[in-house]
């Protein structure tokens, strides 16, 4: 396995890019530590696939370097980078048995038959497919085909990194959680460096130890799932992660105080400079009580274990996640924001000084 470091990476599909908007990848500096489980998360078109193809060697970056354990591999072709990939659609041979499919990457590299048999048995046990080793792949269900595709990526123990490109896209929703759990279990057992590319926050947050969040060709935050949820570095992170996403409200800084209308809002830390800001607070950290900003409940959505209350605060809508019985629509309420989870943002970026 390997530490993967991307240094000053940029890429444009144009021959002569003139400015930032011409780059599919703006400057990216990321380090994936050896043996870690990482997710690359963002919406379609944010640059995830471009970045993945650069790491794998399918695409040469316009600028910057890729290093595996300190070795510059920027100019090496894919077959020299020692990478295993699992794609959206299962890459297996339908005419082969499960055993033959799992053995193929090893047999193709001249591994000894005894070691192939041993390794196939290990992976089959991890995937819980021992009872189908002699079944032709054509007869497998879609989720089992993807299991075998994952197994082909994991069967080699000499790869630098295993990369998963939206591997659960074609899997039925009720089976996704099983494969997600299995993949997490596999990582904990084999401790391979794994990078999981997805636009699905649930997949990213349940698989990864750290998540790299991308927007419009930029990395906007790298952090653990808890860090991304509790301390979004950018409003995009607050909006994209969480259901519902973070409340983003227009505010201003006046003499060191962050104001929402005429009311000072306590922050997680000091905010320097005066002028317009955006106030960010997640629905989980909005409380309904007897004190705070006067508002009126406009809508209540029962989502099972809790309710989402949408309250009107003048011309603004603020969402709160409420446990227990929520107040009905039309009720006058008071809203307060948990100070240590409330932050100010300028141009999308967190400017609350002592907030991580």
TrEMBL record:
InterPro entries: AAA+_ATPase (IPR003593), ABC_transporter-like_ATP-bd (IPR003439), ABC_transpr_FbpC (IPR015853), ABC_transpr_MalK/UgpC-like (IPR047641), Mo/tungstate-bd_C_term_dom (IPR008995), NA-bd_OB-fold (IPR012340), P-loop_NTPase (IPR027417), Transp-assoc_OB_typ2 (IPR013611)
GO molecular function, one term: ATP binding
Keywords noted in UniProt: ATP-binding, Cell membrane, Membrane, Nucleotide-binding, Transport
Classification via SMART domains: AAA
CC per GO annotation: ATP-binding cassette (ABC) transporter complex, substrate-binding subunit-containing
Domain ABC transporter, residue spans: 4-241
Protein family: Belongs to the ABC transporter superfamily.
Protein name: ABC transporter ATP-binding protein
Taxon lineage: Bacteria, Pseudomonadati, Pseudomonadota, Alphaproteobacteria, Rhodobacterales
């Amino acid at each position: 396995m390997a530490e993967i470091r991307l240094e000053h990476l940029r890429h444009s599909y144009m021959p002569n890019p003139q400015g930032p908007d011409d780059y599919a990848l703006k400057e990216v500096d990321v380090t994936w530590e050896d043996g870690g489980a990482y997710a690359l998360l963002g919406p379609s078109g944010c640059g995830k696939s471009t970045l993945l193809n650069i790491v794998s060697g399918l695409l040469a970056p316009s600028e910057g370097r890729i290093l595996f354990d300190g070795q510059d591999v920027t100019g090496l072709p894919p077959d020299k980078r020692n990478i295993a990939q699992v794609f959206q659609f299962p890459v297996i041979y339908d005419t082969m048995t499960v055993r033959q499919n799992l053995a193929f990457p090893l047999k193709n590299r001249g591994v000894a038959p005894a070691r192939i048999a041993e390794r196939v048995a290990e992976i089959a046990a991890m995937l819980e497919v021992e009872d189908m080793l002699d079944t032709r792949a054509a007869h497998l269900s879609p989720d089992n085909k993807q299991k075998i595709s994952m197994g082909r990526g994991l069967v080699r123990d000499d790869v630098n990194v295993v990369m998963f490109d939206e591997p659960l896209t074609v899997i039925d929703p009720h089976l996704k959680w099983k494969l997600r759990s299995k993949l997490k279990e596999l990582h904990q057992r084999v401790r391979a460096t794994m990078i999981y590319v997805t636009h699905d926050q649930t997949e990213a947050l349940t698989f990864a130890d750290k998540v790299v969040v991308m927007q419009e060709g930029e990395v906007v935050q790298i952090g653990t799932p808890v860090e991304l949820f509790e301390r979004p570095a950018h409003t995009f992170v607050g909006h994209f992660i969480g259901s519902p996403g973070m409340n983003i409200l227009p505010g201003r800084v006046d003499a060191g105080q962050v104001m929402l209308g005429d009311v000072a809002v306590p922050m997680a830390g000091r905010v320097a400079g005066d002028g317009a800001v955006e106030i960010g607070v997640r629905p989980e950290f909005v409380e309904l009580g007897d004190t705070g900003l006067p508002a009126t409940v406009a809508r209540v959505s029962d989502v099972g274990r809790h309710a989402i209350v949408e309250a009107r605060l003048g011309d603004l809508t603020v969402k709160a996640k409420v446990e227990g019985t929520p107040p009905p629509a039309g009720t006058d309420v008071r809203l307060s924001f948990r100070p240590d989870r409330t932050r100010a943002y300028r141009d999308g970026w967190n400017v609350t000084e002592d907030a991580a």
